[in-house]
Amino acid sequence: MFSDPAANVAKLGVNDGMRVVDLGAGSGFYSFEAARRVGGSGRVYAVDVQKVLLERLRATGAANGLRNIEVVWGNAEKIGGTKLREGIADRVIASNILFQIEKPDEFILEIKRLLKPGGKVLVIDWSEVSALSPKNLVTSLKAQTLFEKSGFKLDQSFNAGDHHYGLVFIK
Questions:
Q1: What is the pTM of this model?
Q2: How do strand 43-48 and strand 115-126 relate by DSSP bridges?
Q3: Which of 38, 66, 124, 170 is the most buried (most CB within 10 A)?
């Protein structure tokens, strides 16, 4: 099985009324799942550097009745680069993005800035055992080390499909 956004978001504990930031939202699979879970009183901020992906995400979300998604053109590798206010998020999703990040420390500090105290971040990335893994792989152990170095505490780790690992950290 490839990675399942519904199963992975369930591990994060996203509930009605929450605010969720999806960093590197891409095609929006995680944004859509989070939007269904936060309901009409919640909000999902889908952040990406590619405007064309954000426009497609906005259109697909609207076509599926998900009006609680706000697309944000921003850079998550820079502190303040998402343009979202500090402490806005109950949850943050970082799926299939770590391996692309050039400045992981700044990326993690931006997540920390966005999260409320006690907030959680879901990290889904390529497993070292997958033949499909990219060359710039960030192993689950390396990801854990990076987040813990920035003050996060590991809440859980899980298999996120045949090709991915999953980690949940608490701020």
A1: 0.95
A2: unpaired
A3: 124
